[in-house]
Amino acid sequence: MGVVAQGASLDLGVAFEWQFCEASNDDVALHWHSVDERAQASMERLYGDFRTCRTSSPPFVLMGGGSYMIDFIEMRRECVHTGSVQRLRRIRTIRPGSGFSKWVSQLLDRLRNETQKREETEKLYKEAEQKRSLASEEVELAAQRQRRTQLSLELAEARASLLELQRNDAEEAVKKERWWRVMAEKDYEEAMKRASDAHIARMASLRSIQYDLSAISPGEEHLPFRAMDQTELVAAAQNLLRRSSHHGVGSRCNPMRDATVTRVYKICQLSVMRNYLRSKEAILEDFRKCAVPKPDLVPPVSKLFREFFPQVALDDDVGEELLLHGTTEPRQIAELGFDERCARASGLYGQGVYFAENSCKCFQYTDGAERCIILSRVALGDPYYTACELQGLKRPPHRRPERLTPSFHKSVVANAGICNGFGLSQHQQHREFVLFDGRQAYPDLAIFFTID
Predict the structure, then answer these.
(1) For 331-375, how does the pLDDT look when each residue is reduced to its tens digit (9 = 90+)?
(2) Cβ(416)–Cβ(255) under 8 Å?
(3) Segment 53-95, tens digit of pLDDT
(4) Which residues of 87-98 are buried (b: 16+ CB within 10 A; e: fewer)?
(5) Considering the entire predicted model, what is its pTM?
(6) For residue range 38-64, what is the model confidence (pLDDT) as tens digits?
(7) Mean pLDDT across 181-189
(8) How confident is the model at residue 25 (pLDDT cuts 50, 70, 90)?
(9) How much is the CA Rg of the chain, to the nearest whole Å?
C-alpha cells in the first residue's frame, strides 16, 4: 500500500495551473483565482510556444467571455475591452486521481494507522504502569499498616510499662513517706542534730575558717593579737620559714635558712574576718554568674604549708591558699587588714597587695632587729598568669576582652622564670601573687623572728 512495484512507472500527476489576481500592487494582500479549464489549456500551449519561439507579438486568449492580451514576460494580462491589467502566475500542482496522489494518500493513511497503533500501545503501556504503580502503592500501604500495627503494639507495651513504673514510684513514694513519718516521730532530735552538723560542715568547707569565736571573751573582740600555745606553733613557723627559703653560695636568700622564730600570735580581728568571708562569697557568686570553672593553681603552692599547718582547712572552690607577706607594720595589718590603697604605684605587677610562698622573698620587705612575716589565707580566685611586667595595673585583666560584659580575673600570678626586665637576670626569681582587693586576704598568724 503506497509502494510502487519495481519496474513500474509512477505517475507523479504533476500539472501546472494558471491563476490571476485582481490587484496589481505588491503591498496589498493578493487573492488569486484560477482561470477556467478551457483557458488553462490555451494558456499552457501559448506559454510553451512563447518559451520555444519567443514571439514578439503578444497572444490573445478568450477567458470567461472576455478577450485578453497576454504578456508572459511581465506575467500579466490586459482586457481588450476595458483595458484593466491583472497579474498572472503559473504554479505547480498535483493532479487529483494521479498515481502520485494515490501514493501520498496511501502513505498518509499508513502513517495515520501507525500513529494510531503507537498511541494505542502507549495507552496500554501507561495503563500497565498505572496498574504496577497501584500495586506498589498497595504493597507500601500494607507495609505501613503493618508498621503502624507494630508501633501500636509497642506503644501499648510502653504505656503498660509506664503505668507499672508509675505504680512502683507511687508505692515507693508511699513507703518513703511512711519512713520519713516514722523517722520524724522517733528520731526528730537526732535528725535535727545531723542537719545542724551538716550545715556546720558545709559552712566550714565554703568559708574555710577554723576560728573559735567562743574563745574570745567579752572585751577582747577588737584585740588584734591573741596568745596561743607557743611551743608547737613556733616550731612549725620556724620550719616553714627556713625550708621555704631559697639558698645557695653567695645568695641573698641564705639568711632565712637560719631564721629564729621568737613568738607567734593569732590575729583575731572580727571585722577583717567578716570582710574576708564576704569577699569569698562574692567570688563564688561571680564564678556562678560567669560560669567560671573551679580554679586550679599551676603549679601548686609548696606542700610545706599544709605539712606544717595541717589544721588549717582551705576552700578550693575560691582558690584559697596559705601565703606569706613581709611587712614593717604588723599591728596596722592586724587591726585593719590588707589595704590595696596603701600599695606602691611602682609595683612591678601593678598597684596591689603582694604575697609569696618563699620566706626569702618576704624577708626583703621586713626591717628591724625583730622582723615580722604574716601567714595569710588568700582567696586567689581564678588568677591571671602574666608573662611580663604589668606596672601601673590597678585591677586584674579581663577574662575575655572580646565580650561586652565586663568579667575580670581575681588576682595576678607571676610565676618564676618569666621575663620581667628587672634585675641582673631580667627574669622572675620568686613566684609572686598580687591582689587588687585587700579583702581577699585574711592575716591569720603574725610570725616574729630574728636573723643571727
Answers:
(1) 999 999 999 999 988 899 999 999 999 999 999 999 999 999 999
(2) no
(3) 755 566 777 666 678 888 888 888 888 888 888 888 888 877 6
(4) bbeeeeeeeeeb
(5) 0.54
(6) 888 888 888 888 888 755 566 777 666
(7) 73
(8) low
(9) 59
Q: Please give the angle made by the CA atoms of 238, 241 and 242, to the nearest 5 degrees.
A: 85
108-115 mean pLDDT: 90
SS3 for 290-327, per residue? Answer: HCCCCCCCCCCCCCHHHHHCCCCCCCHHHCEEEEEEEE
